[in-house]
Design brief:
Radius of gyration: 23 Å
CATH superfamily of the largest domain: NAD(P)-binding Rossmann-like Domain
Structural class: alpha/beta
Helix content: 25-40%
Number of domains: 2
Distance between the termini: 43 Å
Number of strands: 15
Largest sheet: 6 strands, parallel
Strand order of the largest sheet: 12-11-10-13-14-15
Number of helices: 11
Order of helices and strands: HEEEHEHEHEEEEEHEHEHEHEHEHH
CATH topology of the largest domain: Rossmann fold
CATH class of the largest domain: Alpha Beta
CATH architecture of the largest domain: 3-Layer(aba) Sandwich
Shape: elongated
Length: about 325
Amino acid sequence: MENIDITVLKQLFAWRAAGKKALLVTVIRTWGSSPRPIGSIMALCEDSRVVGSVSGGCVEDDLIRQHLEVGALKDQTPKVMQYGITADEAHRFGLPCGGTLELLLEYNPQAKELEELIGYLGQGHLVAREVELANGVVQLMKTDHPAELLLTQTHLINTFGPEFRMLIIGAGQMSEYLATMAIFNGFSVTVCDPRDEYRSSWSVPGVTVDHGSPDDLVIQLKPDSRTCIVALTHDPKLDDLALLEALQTEAFYVGAIGSRRNNESRKLRLIEHFDHTEASLQKLRGPIGIYIGSKTPAEIAVSIMAEILAVKNGVQLPKEMSVGVAKKELES
């Protein structure tokens, strides 16, 4: 499953390339509770098809009513709409109590610009899309750093990124559960395992499966700030070298499965044999996951995915939620 923004942009491009009228809607401001974050997008086609979302559904229904039933889906300059200004409106549109949503509506975006944007994203670039509010003119600018949506009196700049990537070392059962969850969270997933007996039974579609050396693959993938690397083999010959390479990259998450004792042993090996220090290993996570009392491979994968998403979204988890700390407290 693709990053939802890319899915929306690709479908919008397909509609516009086919000559259909369409609307691009962006969440530009919120007050109070909001079902979708700032920067979220959706697209509406003249035949009533919708992709993406800006709320729980009721706002989308109103947009369809206003722009299709009334027949207002025509060329015009971008327009700002607000929902949920009053408590009655918030209730009517299914917004959380006190929630207010402000949207920018762009009418019939140019297919050529959408194709160019999708192409940049497919090449792995971050792209800032700048819209001139007075006339709807769009400029695309490659950038090296993710940025929050920027709204001024004259322009809107929304930065789009390529898919987040996950590299899993090991093709065991737990990897299948983790890969499945990563895919429906919009990650592009690669699994690396040189062991035929594990790789041959892999059954998750949509995953790139590699049989090479994990450390070589890390170098080849050139992990960036939208990449996470998870070692799940329990085999130091496979995990350790890949982790060594991963620690030298910009990957936002680098971690390995294993008990507290195994993870301490791993750190000692990396310090003794590979000139690492406690400071240089701060980025290495382990035991990975948040503590939910997980026992089965599926439950452990849930805890790992939850931690990865928290790190991705900039959430500082309490120390008590880490597997190592929680288990230590239970034993005391």
